[in-house]
Design brief:
- It comes from Arthrobacter ramosus.
- It is an enzyme of class 1 (oxidoreductase).
- The structure is a single chain.
- It contains 13 helices and 20 strands.
- The protein is an alpha/beta fold.
- The chain folds into 3 domains: about 5-150 and about 275-335, FAD/NAD(P)-binding domain (3-Layer(bba) Sandwich), CATH 3.50.50; about 165-270, FAD/NAD(P)-binding domain; about 360-465, FAD/NAD-linked reductase, C-terminal dimerisation domain (Enolase-like, domain 1), CATH 3.30.390.30.
- The strands form 5 sheets. A 5-stranded mixed barrel has the order 1-2-3-4-5. It has a 5-stranded antiparallel beta sheet with strand order 16-17-20-19-18, sandwiched between helices.
- Helix 1 crosses helix 8 and helix 3 (about 50-65) packs antiparallel against helix 4 (about 80-105).
- The longest helix has 26 residues, at about 80-105.
- The chain is globular and about 70 Å long.
- The structure holds flavin-adenine dinucleotide and nicotinamide-adenine-dinucleotide (NAD).
- Flavin-adenine dinucleotide binds near residues 48, 51 and 311.
- The site of flavin-adenine dinucleotide has 35 residues, from helix 1, strand 2, helix 2, helix 3 and strand 3.
């Protein structure tokens, strides 16, 4: 069958790919995007959006539980209704999915639902979801294939019907207790949510701290919050064997020799790229030994005319990072055609937030990474309870920390653990991008009483080391 030719063929409808596809289609280019199942990609269907919707419900529940503290009576016994919780989450997701579909169609691209597999350079055969096969070839091809939960090799795991972040979102009833294997982003967010809605949680984390990328003091503060909230945290130990008994309970035997038993288990030990079985190597696209697509700093793969973006291309696994890959691709496709200069992915400042309660907002270097990189650092650190707004909203928990370069007085990074930290971190990011002296942030006039006002305090001598 001779292929249908398009200017741009996007394989996998993730954040970078779908945004590029819509942009170029609106500009009058002939664009096709192939997506096997999730209209709008992972983030909207099974990751950021549904989890943050549920986390918000958990926060509402927690606020109602504390109603009396805020002077409100009559809300003594709030009840979490899983069915209604799921309903709201599904409503949010479905509305966004519908919006995506109409944007795809409205952009003028051809949106093809089916499974793509490469059969020749820049050419895919698509097994259509509603039957039939099409073959498409792009002058340029963008791979935006995403990742899926990684199931590690642990004795008994395949037979134990473990939960992943995908399946957990579909549960019809809540277990009384759960073991969460992995204390990274997924593990921490679900541990906090499930504990809030009444599940007894044990986190088993392989490394010596939760969120190993963070400074030990920040990770310890999160661990303390977890422990105070009733979550059991087991650090520095891994699962040797998993078994599910006939009555459904799961027992994890740890390498330490201990066992942990619960009604269910969530495996959250990282994600693997969806690059298997689509014949990428057959068309000259090299993968690394974990299956991630090798790209250069302009997101070009090892095959001529084939580009890659997002999680599967080794970009930090955040939706906003994939979105920036879209900008890089758009610039570089134009530059290749003689318009403007190409853009590199190196040196990008990519913030992120972990939506535990309180949440962690992060940007730039941690103290450890700054010291390892040879910086002479000054640390600013304070308790969130010093911020007036924290008192008015009744969220005193958390610490804020910033890392400053002693030689230039510039802010190198920050870890803000506390209410609204995912919002405030953007202000620190702007200061870093602008190369501001920390004193400029200290002396900026910031609205009172906001959490952001804490940035005035953080850099005062009371909280800044000499
Ligand atoms: C539980 C959870 C919570 C998260 N929360 C956040 C958060 O709060 N904030 C944040 O920034 N990030 C979060 N992330 C990470 C974020 O979801 C990812 O970084 C982001 O979705 C990556 O998107 P992407 O562009 O790489 O592609 P994806 O959105 O993963 O899209 C890839 C698409 O390709 C399709 N595909 C794959 N192979 C084929 C094929 N052969 N044929 C056709 N289609 C194919 C897939 O179906 C998929 O839709 C979270 C992740 C998880 C798991
Ligand atoms: N808020 C957000 O932005 C957000 C939320 C969720 C996920 N994500 C993205 O999704 C990605 C995947 O998240 P994740 O939590 O699955 O992975 P992760 O890499 O963040 O954490 C996995 C953790 O599991 C531990 N681990 C590995 N093997 C283990 C074992 N056998 N037993 C016990 N512990 C083990 C590791 O030490 C690690 O800390 C993240 O990298 C992140 O970028 C982002």
């Amino acid at each position: 069958m001779s292929p249908e030719d398009v200017d741009l063929l996007v394989v996998g409808g993730g954040k970078a790919g779908k945004t590029l596809a819509m942009d170029l289609a609106r500009a009058g280019r002939n664009v096709a995007m192939i997506e096997r199942s999730m209209i709008g990609g992972t983030c909207i269907n099974v990751a950021c959006i549904p989890t943050k919707t549920l986390i918000n419900s958990g926060r509402v529940l927690e606020t109602i539980r504390r109603a009396a503290e805020f002077g409100i009576s009559g809300a003594e016994d709030p009840l979490m209704e899983l069915k209604l919780l799921r309903h709201r989450k599904e409503d949010v997701v479905e509305t966004m999915v519908k919006g995506q579909l109409s944007s795809f169609v409205g952009s003028g691209m051809e949106f093809v639902l089916g499974e793509a597999k490469f059969v020749a350079p820049r050419t895919v055969e698509v097994t259509l979801n509603d039957g039939g096969v099409r073959t498409l070839r792009g002058t340029d091809v963008v791979l935006n294939l995403g990742t899926e939960p990684l199931l590690p090799t642990i004795e008994g795991l395949p037979e134990s019907k473990v939960q992943t972040s995908n399946t957990l979102l579909k549960l019809e009833s809540l277990p009384e207790s759960i073991i969460i294997l992995g204390g990274g982003y997924v593990g921490c967010e679900f541990a906090d949510l499930l504990n809030t809605i009444g599940v007894k949680v044990t986190v088993v984390q392989g490394s010596g701290q939760l969120l190993p990328r963070e400074d030990p003091d920040i990770a310890a503060a999160i661990e303390q919050n977890f422990t105070d909230a009733g979550i059991t945290v087991r650090l520095g130990t891994r699962a040797q064997r998993i078994s599910r008994a006939a009555n459904g309970t799961v027992t994890v035997t740890l390498f330490s020799g201990d066992t942990v038993t619960a009604d269910d288990i969530l495996v959250a030990v990282g994600r693997k790229p969806m690059t298997d079985g689509i014949n990428l190597e057959g068309i000259g696209v090299e993968l690394d030994h974990h299956g991630f697509i090798r790209v250069d700093d302009q997101l070009h793969t090892t095959a001529e005319g084939v580009w890659a973006a997002g999680d599967a291309a080794g970009t930090p696994q955040f939706t906003h990072a994939s979105y920036d890959d879209y900008r890089v691709l758009k610039t570089n496709l134009a530059a290749r055609n003689g318009a403007g200069k190409p853009r590199s992915t190196s040196g990008r400042l990519i913030p992120y937030s972990v939506f535990t309660t309180p949440e962690l907002g992060r940007v730039g270097l941690s103290e450890r990474h700054a010291r390892d990189a040879g910086y002479k650092v000054r640390i600013a650190k304070m308790s969130v309870s010093a911020i007036p707004r924290a008192r008015t909203v009744g969220h005193l928990e958390g610490i804020w920390k910033a890392v400053i370069d002693r030689e230039t007085n510039r802010i190198l990074g920050a870890a803000l653990l506390g209410a609204e930290a995912s919002e405030v971190i953007a202000a620190v990011q702007m200061a870093i991008l602008a190369g501001l002296d920390y004193a400029a942030v200290r002396d900026a006039v910031i609205t009172h009483p906001t959490m952001a006002e804490g940035l005035n305090l953080l850099f005062t001598p009371a909280f800044l080391e000499d």
